[in-house]
């Protein structure tokens, strides 16, 4: 499959996408653990079916020390016992924030409260922005049909722990 559009080759879309990526870098400064952020990005990308991001965030999670067991259980996190309560709260928040059309009320108070038990206000703001950022990037990649080539190398976009 070939991409429909080379986003970076078009002046307006390329400029906007670069600003979008810069905004995403701000979330990387969060005190939410790097591995948690990568697992959330992976889960959001799985829900949306963004192959480019699934490839990228799987590799970034491995580079952060994630095991193949935990990575393979991300789609079934509710039934898996390998995730902490904080990670489970982050997954739940990510899923409800991604599937807003499926839940008429958006993110429920119960889900927000569970996340707030594990994350302070600054971290909750970071999680909120991460969810929004990933959904936007997923949609850009999916609409443009950017294929996953498998060639992504962890750290190539300057990601750090």
Automatic annotation (TrEMBL):
<dbReference type="InterPro" id="IPR029032">
    <property type="entry name" value="AhpD-like"/>
</dbReference>
<feature type="domain" description="Carboxymuconolactone decarboxylase-like">
    <location>
        <begin position="16"/>
        <end position="96"/>
    </location>
</feature>
<dbReference type="GO" id="GO:0051920">
    <property type="term" value="F:peroxiredoxin activity"/>
</dbReference>
<dbReference type="InterPro" id="IPR004675">
    <property type="entry name" value="AhpD_core"/>
</dbReference>
<dbReference type="InterPro" id="IPR003779">
    <property type="entry name" value="CMD-like"/>
</dbReference>
<dbReference type="Pfam" id="PF02627">
    <property type="entry name" value="CMD"/>
</dbReference>
<protein>
    <submittedName>
        <fullName>Carboxymuconolactone decarboxylase family protein</fullName>
    </submittedName>
</protein>
């Amino acid at each position: 499959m070939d991409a429909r559009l080379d986003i970076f080759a078009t002046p307006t879309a390329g400029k906007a996408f670069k600003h979008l990526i810069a905004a995403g870098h701000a979330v990387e400064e969060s005190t939410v653990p790097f591995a948690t952020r990568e697992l959330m990005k992976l889960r959001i990308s799985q829900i949306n079916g963004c192959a480019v991001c699934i490839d990228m965030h799987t590799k970034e999670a491995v580079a952060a020390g994630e095991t193949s067991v935990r990575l393979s259980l991300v789609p079934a996190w509710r039934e898996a016992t390998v995730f902490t309560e904080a990670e489970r709260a982050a997954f739940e928040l990510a899923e409800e924030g991604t599937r807003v059309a499926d839940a008429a009320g958006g993110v429920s108070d119960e889900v927000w409260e569970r996340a707030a038990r594990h994350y302070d206000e600054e971290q909750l703001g970071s999680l909120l922005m991460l969810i929004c950022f990933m959904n936007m990037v997923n949609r850009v990649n999916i609409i443009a049909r950017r294929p996953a080539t498998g060639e992504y190398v962890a750290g190539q976009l300057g990601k750090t722990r």
